[in-house]
Amino acid sequence: MQNITKLQVEQKQSLKQKLALNEMLSHGIRSLGKNLLWLASAQFSGRVVRLGASVITARLLTPEIFGQVAIVLTLFELICTPTRRITSAALIRMNDADFSDNLASANSINFASCISAFVLMSLISLPLAYYYQDSQLILPILFVASSYLLLPFGMLYATVNLRNNNMRKVASANLWQTIGDGVLTAVLALSGFGIWAIIIPKVVMVFVWIYIHKTATPLPVFTQATSIARVKALLNFSVPVSLSDLINTLRQSIDYLVIGYFMGVEALGVYFFAYNVSLGVSLGLVQSFGTAFYSHLCSDNDDLSVQSAQQKYRNSVIAITAIAAPIIILQTSLAPLYVPFVYGEQWLSTDALAVFIFLCLSGLVRPMAEAASQLLLANGHSRLNFNLNIAITALLTLVISIASQFDLTTVALSVMVTYLIIMPWLCWYSSRISFSQSTVKHS
């Protein structure tokens, strides 16, 4: 009789634990969903405004100008990427006391890295202009580089908002920055500013991003001054993360670099146009997902068992795929109708439509790559993430280099096929590595 009673008690406890676990997981998914909703809605609203701007610029600017813009913005993105999480990736994981102790050191790193980025981009402008035989690239590159000097004034505030899972504030900053960018681009394009219509807003809107992040976001008191030991500790964690982000950005931009090298600025302009129009919405969702997912994984990972963490990861990947896939499929199916109608018949004389469709379809699996990368970083596998991105980037470089010997349609088709094969494998492999390692830790 006592054995039966004991068994019933154990069953009730087991049931309670399962219910508590399910509640924790569902709460986590709801929290991620809420954060993703804020970020995605901001991205979507901003993309609507940017769509209007792209309609205007597509009708007023030539493929050559789009090619120049692609060179400037790709260079900016590659140099800027390592600075974005140079301290935030480490700070987000800390408890409150360590967070306050490291703020001064993190602030010093932010300023040093952004000033270095400004100097590096300025120095690259001259050989890049010489390579493309286009001196008009120098001033736009220098002007865009000046935005690096503004970023440190908002980076710690953005980190606080991310650490507190205040995605509403993060989304607002992204939204108004994007809306301002789109509106100002349209106004300047209509006023005949040419390439500057796209370049000027990139710098001006940084002020908006800083202002929104700083408003009603008090920084904790800097309890410790900058110290070499803390700087080293922050960099030991963050440098591999930043390098992984850089390689990830390089992987996403490698087609620009290879096409510009093999096929020239005009072909690059056509590809850049098709890429941004086709993947604008889906990449916005992927970026929003990555921003929310890293904070989501770091928030309560220590309280979950291996099986629960794995389920949390799978549910999150399924959720973002379920959101992105219908949008991408609809966009692809309607492309032959709205691309010439919205952007002008002149784009039909190029390969833009076929490139648009293939790149759209490659977006179906891009969320998997983002999820895999954030999972590895959250579990401390920054070096593995770096190595995987290096390997994938090398593979893409080889594939695109071969495809560039034919035409832009072949390039886009090759990119699509490579992504559809590699990204699901990367998602599976990252899960296997992260959770098998966790099994060892928990055992």
UniProtKB/TrEMBL annotation:
Record's protein name: Oligosaccharide flippase family protein
Source species: Shewanella electrodiphila
Pfam family, one: Polysacc_synt_3
Membrane topology: Multi-pass membrane protein
Family stated for the protein in its record: Belongs to the polysaccharide synthase family.
Regions crossing the membrane: 109-132, 138-162, 183-212, 256-275, 317-341, 347-365, 386-404, 410-429
Subcellular location, record wording: Cell membrane
PANTHER family, per the entry: LIPOPOLYSACCHARIDE BIOSYNTHESIS PROTEIN WZXC, PST FAMILY PREDICTED COLANIC ACID TRANSPORTER
Keywords: Cell membrane, Membrane, Transmembrane, Transmembrane helix
